[in-house]
Write a structure and sequence with these properties.
The structure holds two protein chains of two kinds. Chain A has helices spanning about 1-40, 45-55, 55-85, 90-110, 110-120, 130-170, 175-195, 205-210, 210-220, 225-235. Chain A is elongated and about 70 Å long. Chain A has one domain. Helix content of chain A is about 80%, strand content about 0%. Chain A is mainly α. Chain B starts with a helix and ends in a 5-residue tail after the last helix. Chain B is elongated, with a radius of gyration of 22 Å. Classes of the chains: A mainly alpha, B mainly alpha.
């Protein structure tokens, strides 16, 4: 009975998971790249501040899309746990734990974007600061936001490491996808720690190393998982 | 006890006893790895939050603090990176402790892990405050509309906020200590006294619910921490856990040993 439900629903579940996972991409790109590219003028605090005020809805949509991306990340890691726990339950739990911490950091990190809105809408007590001073705090908060994204990436990267290990060992997903996920992990770690330690180096490897994060959801969506082998795994683990 | 365990089990291929051995040696191994990660986290975090900040922060002098940060920027960045690495080690030992105490009470060990993971997230977010001074003082800072004194004052403000956020972490750590103290006390594979001491230590850290009170009582909290956390870590590193009793408790509780 249980095997029958697994047979009928698992391929569909894997594909839905792939689709949801893939949705994170446009959502994240909108919040992390598109919105800042429209509003932030590097080196010009006053223009950045006035852009944000002029396009406040866009700025707020950016925050919402980042928060939405975190919720998607949470759903994905929990669904992946169900798919991958048969491979090695302990490693799957570690994957979830790093995912949970990463989501917490990502959500709390949005406080700095809300702080920008609070500053620019100035509660009355902020009038003791000059407009130039208030404007100059905006890039500081944006930098703090970017730093938080980097810290988040470290934990998200480690989540991908455990994910990649499980995919590699699974037998029901291609090993190359697991390798690509582990490469994505090291890409994040190299990029972020080099930014922490050597700011002038500016290593940018994500475009080279990050493909695993795109290939994995695409594979889940298009090819799904090898159900026969998955069931064998699940039985062995039970 | 260790010698007994060794003579009792004769490893040979296909022998069920050999399989039994890998199962039994695994909790001891895991306990040691937990001790290693606890040690790493403690060392790395102390390096970042205590040693480096101790060298750099002059608590009543914002200008001197700002000067120290810029004069030792690489060291400061290293301190920040250490706190991030510390959180990673922390998460790993949270998991290993959870895995170790599952046989005692699955629910309490899950609760302890959840409480401590919240603490880990707090620590990770705290590191933002640690780094903020570099954003204020460093190259390409946006704060040109502020005077140097104002920027320096803001720097010290963030460093003090970092300290406050760390106190917040300690409350979660304290609650974890109480829960884990209970788990150790109820376990058959670790000495009960370690559990009692850890629970007392946890009560100490939880005094940080009222920071002024905690600062007043800090010497006692530090002593409680020294006589409980250190022995536990050394015990885990040197002795691990009593693997045989762990397995017995695990099979009683129906926990599968991987």
């Amino acid at each position: 009975m249980t095997t029958r439900t697994a047979q009928t629903s698992l391929p569909i579940r894997a594909r839905v998971l792939g689709l949801v996972y893939l949705m994170a991409f446009p959502i994240d790109l909108f919040g992390f790249l598109y919105v800042p590219s429209r509003l932030v003028v590097p080196g010009d605090a006053a223009t950045t501040a006035s852009n944000i005020i002029a396009s406040e809805t866009l700025f707020r949509l950016g925050i919402v899309s980042i928060l939405l991306g975190q919720i998607v990340g949470l759903l994905v890691v929990l669904a992946l746990y169900k798919v991958l726990k048969g491979v090695n339950n302990n490693i799957a739990v570690l994957m979830v734990i790093f995912g949970l911490v990463s989501v917490s950091i990502g959500v709390v990190n949005e406080f700095s974007q809300f702080a920008i809105l609070l500053l620019l809408h100035g509660p009355d007590n902020l009038t003791v600061f000059s407009a130039a001073q208030l404007n100059s705090l905006v890039p500081l908060l944006l930098n703090l936001h970017n730093l938080g994204i980097r810290i988040d990436e470290v934990f998200n990267g480690l989540e991908l490491f455990f994910m990649g290990y499980l995919v590699f060992k699974s037998g029901f997903l291609p090993r190359i996808v697991g390798v690509a996920l582990v490469i994505a992990c090291f890409g994040y770690l190299i990029q972020d720690f080099s930014a922490f330690l050597f700011p002038n180096l500016a290593v940018n490897v994500i475009l080279l190393t990050g493909w695993g994060e795109l290939i994995f959801p695409l594979w889940l969506l298009v090819r799904g998982i090898n159900v026969e082998r998955w069931e064998k795994r699940a039985l062995a683990a039970a | 006890m260790e010698a007994q365990a060794k003579t009792r089990i004769e490893p040979s291929i296909g022998d069920p006893k050999a399989i039994q051995q890998t199962v039994e040696s695994s909790p001891r191994y895991k306990a040691r790895i937990a001790g290693v990660f606890e040690f790493l986290e403690g060392t790395v975090f102390t390096f970042g939050q205590v040693v480096i900040l101790g060298k750099i922060v002059v608590s009543s002098d914002a200008a001197a603090t700002a000067h120290n940060i810029l004069a030792n920027e690489t060291l400061y960045r290293l301190g920040f990176a250490a706190t991030v690495v510390g959180v990673i080690c922390h998460i790993v030992w949270v998991f290993l402790f959870f895995d170790l105490f599952k046989p005692v009470s699955r629910n309490i060990s899950i609760l302890a892990a959840f409480v401590m993971l919240v603490g880990c997230a707090v620590q990770a977010v705290t590191s933002l405050l640690y780094f903020a001074p570099l954003l204020i003082l460093g190259e390409g800072s946006s704060l040109s509309a502020f005077t140097a004194e104002q920027s320096q004052a803001l720097t010290l403000f963030f460093l003090k906020l970092n300290g406050e956020a760390f106190d917040l972490y300690l409350i979660f750590f304290g609650f974890w200590c109480i829960l884990t103290g209970y788990l150790i006390f109820r376990s058959a594979f670790l000495p009960r006294i370690l559990g009692v001491l850890l629970a007392i230590d946890g009560l100490g850290w939880m005094i940080f619910l009222s920071p002024p009170l905690a600062i007043a009582l800090f010497p006692f909290i530090a002593i409680a921490s020294g006589v409980s956390e250190l022995p536990l870590m050394v015990w885990l590193l040197v002795r691990g856990v009593n693997a045989q009793r762990w397995s017995e408790q695990a099979s009683e509780a129906g926990v599968r040993a991987y």
